[in-house]
Design goal:
four-stranded antiparallel beta sheet; about 400 residues; mainly beta; Tachylectin-2, Chain A
Length: about 400
């Protein structure tokens, strides 16, 4: 990724801020809403799943499962009617154990008054037109976690969906019912170990370190996929943020660099605020009491200090959210201590919704020994983002 700038913020600083937010820092975010979906929530009358992960129990839950779990919220689309489309990830963590997990987009309705999330339905991802040029797991061409690791999603102006995959990494284009519309789009020079076209060549990125984030430009003309891992030969901790032209169906050659605060960190999601600024979730690999770094940054491509990196400003520390009204039920400080936090969406100019990927049944960040629920929180920022109005479409 080419030049854009980030200001590296020392971990010791509570409200990072080199490069910056006009009018000062954002300060401490406040929890305004909380809802959760129980870990053991399944798609009604669906196929069995989890036969390849072992019997367990895992955090008190035994496998396999009689139905498909509703799990792994790794991407989100606001439908602007109180409901959201959320993307399941590849299932159970890798190709080898996820062949019986069907990739799916769920429609959910969080209710922060009751604290509950209702699952309204959804659709599976599939390839009935045979756009995928390599062998798939199932003869009916319903896509599984052994085919792709989808981790991010946006909806285009025409109602179709684009998803970012980590196994290629590929961009995937689906219609409104989840049917693949064209062949997976690769990124030149970037291949994960799971890439089906390696043909004995060396991968250039780590396992499942492909497109973790995918942002749509506010004018709807471009996509910005953000890698989770560093490409071979790049500075450790530097992530490529590329530009893809939706009209030409091709990468433009422009790319920026998002630098992690530590090479051991990962990103979780990205969403456009305006032409130049993006919200990015950055996190460590800890959960529960071992979680030390779960943050949302405002990353700016304009590189004001000329260091070749996206400028970064801390927007919210997800381990230190004010909760004076006890909305989350854990005292006056609310923590979002999950290993994988992979969804952020703009609700208004000062309010974000954030969701976790619960890695069912493996993660236990909220209560040790218990499988994590899928949680949906809303947080009010300390000051306005001054976002482009088109960012809320």
């Amino acid at each position: 990724m080419l030049g854009a700038a980030v200001l590296t913020v020392a971990l010791a600083l509570p409200a990072a801020a080199h490069g910056g937010h006009e009018g000062g820092g954002f300060g401490r975010a406040t929890l305004t809403g909380f809802a959760s979906l129980p870990a053991e929530t399944f798609v009604p009358d669906s196929e069995p799943s989890g036969a390849l992960i072992g019997a367990g129990p895992f955090n008190g839950i035994a496998a396999p499962f009689a139905d498909q779990p509703v799990q792994g919220f790794s991407g989100i689309v606001d439908r602007h009617d109180g409901t959201f489309d959320v993307l399941s990830d590849n299932g159970y963590g890798n190709k080898a154990n996820s062949a019986d997990y069907l990739l799916r987009v769920h429609r959910i309705k969080p209710d922060t008054r009751t604290g509950k999330i209702e699952v309204l339905g959804g659709f599976h991802l599939s390839d009935p037109r045979h756009e995928v040029p390599f062998a798939l797991t199932r003869a009916d061409r319903v896509l599984t976690g052994a085919d792709f690791d989808v981790e991010s999603i946006v909806r285009a102006a025409d109602g179709t969906y684009w998803a970012g995959d980590e196994f290629g990494p590929f961009l995937l284009h689906f219609d409104a019912e989840g049917r693949l519309l064209e062949a997976p789009v690769a990124l030149d020079g970037v291949r994960a170990p799971e890439n089906p076209h390696l043909d004995g060549a060396q991968p250039t990125i780590g396992s499942s370190k492909g497109f973790e984030g995918l942002a749509r430009s506010v004018d709807g003309r471009r996509l910005y996929p953000l890698l989770e891992g560093t490409v071979t030969g790049d500075t450790p901790g530097d992530l490529r943020f590329s530009e893809f032209d939706l009209r030409k169906r091709a990468y433009t050659g422009k790319r920026y660099v998002y630098r992690l605060e530590s090479p051991s960190h990962a990103i979780g999601d990205a969403v456009a605020v305006d032409r130049h600024r993006f919200l990015v979730i950055e996190r460590d690999g800890g959960q529960g009491d071992t979680a030390r770094f779960k943050r949302i940054y405002l990353a700016d491509t304009r590189d004001r200090d000329g260091d070749g990196l996206m400028d970064k400003t801390l927007v919210a520390d997800l381990l230190d959210i004010a909760d004076p009204k006890g909305v989350g039920g854990f005292g006056e400080t609310f923590r979002f201590p999950f290993q994988t936090i992979e969804d952020v969406v703009l609700l208004d100019d000062r309010t974000l919704a954030v969701l976790n990927d619960n890695n069912f049944p493996f993660s236990s960040g909220r209560t040790p020994g218990e499988a994590d629920d899928n949680e949906f929180i809303t947080i009010r920022l300390g000051s306005r983002l001054h976002a482009d109005p088109r960012a809320f479409r």
